[in-house]
Amino acid sequence: MAKYRIVTPAGASFTTAGGGYALESEALAGMDAEIVEAPTDTAGFIAAARTADAIYGKGIAITKDIIDALENCKVIALGSVGVDSVDVKAATARGIPVTNVPDTFIEEVADHAMMLLLAGFRRLLEQDRMVREGRWKEGRPALLKIPRLMGLTLGFISFGRVARAVARRAAPFGLRMIAYDPFVEEMTISEHGVLPATLNEVMSQSDFVSMHAPARPECTHMLREEHFRLMKPSSIFVNVGRGPTVHEEALIKALQEGWIAHAALDVLEVEPPSHNNPLLRMENVTLTAHVASASARFDEARKRRVGHELALVLSGKWPMSCVNPGVLQDTALRRWQPIGMGRGPNS
Questions:
Q1: Quick check: 199 and 170 in contact, CB under 8 A?
Q2: Cys staple from 27: which of 75, 180, 278, 307, with CB 3.0 to 4.6 Å?
Q3: Which of 242, 304, 305, 308 is catalytic?
Q4: 5 catalytic, yes or no?
Q5: 242 catalytic, yes or no?
Q6: Which residue among 5, 94, 192, 290 is the active-site one?
Q7: Could you confirm whether 290 is annotated as catalytic?
């Protein structure tokens, strides 16, 4: 039996299935560690993971019941930016660090956000349909109704890594930028050429609202009907963050009643969406299937990062991206140097 046993849900992944764990195991080489798969039902997973040294979480919820049953777990490692699949509060209470991969595909998500912004603004899908349907002469008149991009305002809700990368891309287009994030210092926002603003200011002043709030309980339905009513009738709403941060019924109402002009969404409140979701039939909506982070390097980068985090913790070191820094309190981990203190899932 290996010295360190890492348990992961069998066959559960948000990317391509199969492929084994060779990439995760690179950083574990020489440590006498093994990654073993466990059933995905709660009882079966608990039975397999009870004495595990680490959990590699993917595809299933790591609930309080599972966490409280762990007797020897030193880390719960995730291969995603979001940590909503883990009860972080329960893990913190047990002194178990939870790690994520907050910076391996930031550039891809920022690229996708700019693509959605520009496609929505220049009515790409509408223009494509006109050409295919033989309505060639309708294209130019449709675009004569929209303003010039330069000088318009892009507003960010949450100003973490992705939003900052989007700001770098948006600056050459001549966009004025504002951001709301109560957890980021105003000087930090300003350093990126972005003006600090309140949430209501972002909603009311922006021609584009780009949503980047994380999937945390306090952010659920952060944007509601009263917020969409503040937006300009010509404005575009972009979301590459998390679907549940938006009250989807309110967004649908805003689109149907013309409070806003367009929504460009990579994420939805329920994924995949029901066939009767009105967003699927609306011409003023651009949709992609929660794919913003995808690229040829996606799987390799995140899997190697997971392996690196596992190796750090199992060798008695502090992980690079611990999302629950309070874990050092009243635990055996007190002996560790809190190198990663203060970091979190900044998306």
A1: no
A2: 307
A3: 242
A4: no
A5: yes
A6: 290
A7: yes
pLDDT digits (tens, 9 = 90+) for 149-188: 999 999 999 999 999 999 999 999 999 999 999 999 999 9
Task: Mention the CATH class of domain 4-104+296-335.
Answer: alpha beta
Q: Which of 26, 185, 257, 271 is catalytic?
A: 271
Q: Is the pTM of this model over 0.85?
A: no
Instruction: Identify the CA nearest to 240 among candidates 180, 157, 303.
Output: 157
CA distance 89 to 206: 35
Token pair in block for residue 240: 């590459």
106-287 homologous superfamily: NAD(P)-binding Rossmann-like Domain (3.40.50.720)
Could you report the per-residue pLDDT of 272-282, keeping only the tens digit for each?
Answer: 999 999 999 99
CATH 3.40.50.720: which residues of the chain? Answer: 4-104+296-335, 106-287
DSSP collapsed to 3 states, the chain: CCCEEEEEECCCCCCCCCCCCHHHHCCCCCCCEEEEEECCCHHHHHHHHCCCCEEEECCCCECHHHHHHCCCCCCEEECCCCCCCECHHHHHHCCCCEECCCCCCHHHHHHHHHHHHHHHHCCHHHHHHHHHCCCHHHHHHHHCCCCCCCCCEEEEECCCHHHHHHHHHHHHHCCEEEEECCCCCHHHHHCCCCEECCHHHHHHHCCEEEECCCCCHHHCCCECHHHHCCCCCCCEEEECCCHHHECHHHHHHHHHCCCCCEEEECCCCCCCCCCCCHHHHCCCEEECCCCCCCCCCHHHHHHHHHHHHHHHHHCCCCCCCECCHHHHCCCHHHHCCCCCCCCCCCC
How far CA 329 is from CA of 83, 101, 319, 335, in Å, comes to 21, 23, 16, 11
